[in-house]
Design a protein that fits this description.
Elements lengths: L2 H31 L4 H24 L8 H29 L4 H24 L4
Length: 130
């Protein structure tokens, strides 16, 4: 991996980690402090996290300030996020229920794999649009 790509991947991973921490914290605040139903809190927090992730990916990681393709970028970004949610569930089922892997080891593997795929897809298809 080239130095520039490696640095972008580090920024990508940092943003992903921070957005995940925001999501968990926001779910906690909504359920424990504001007494929201946990599924409503998760759904709302996931939506907010998706928006935050898109903005950080576009402007901080990929330095893509163009607005001409933003609708298409949002559409592809949401499609990718929902696809990864489905793939995460599928791979977890296969690795844990079919192959007998420990669920935490399986999740670490799946998150790593999906992170690499997402990074590549963002770089090549979403944030290269003008």
């Amino acid at each position: 991996m080239k130095k520039e790509s490696f640095l972008k991947f580090i920024k990508f991973a940092l943003v992903g980690t921070l957005v995940m921490l925001f999501h968990i914290f926001f779910v906690y605040v909504l359920t424990e402090i504001f007494a929201w139903w946990y599924l409503a809190a998760v759904t709302f927090s996931y939506t907010c996290s998706l928006i935050l992730n898109f903005l950080f990916q576009k402007y901080f990681v990929w330095l893509n300030y163009s607005t001409s393709a933003i609708k298409r970028q949002v559409h592809l970004f949401v499609w990718l996020a929902l696809s990864c949610l489905g793939l995460n569930t599928f791979f977890m089922y296969v690795l844990v229920s079919v192959l007998g892997l420990h669920y935490m080891a399986a999740q670490v593997f799946v998150v790593g794999l999906l992170s690499l795929l997402t990074f590549h897809f963002n770089r090549k298809y979403i944030f290269s649009l003008e």
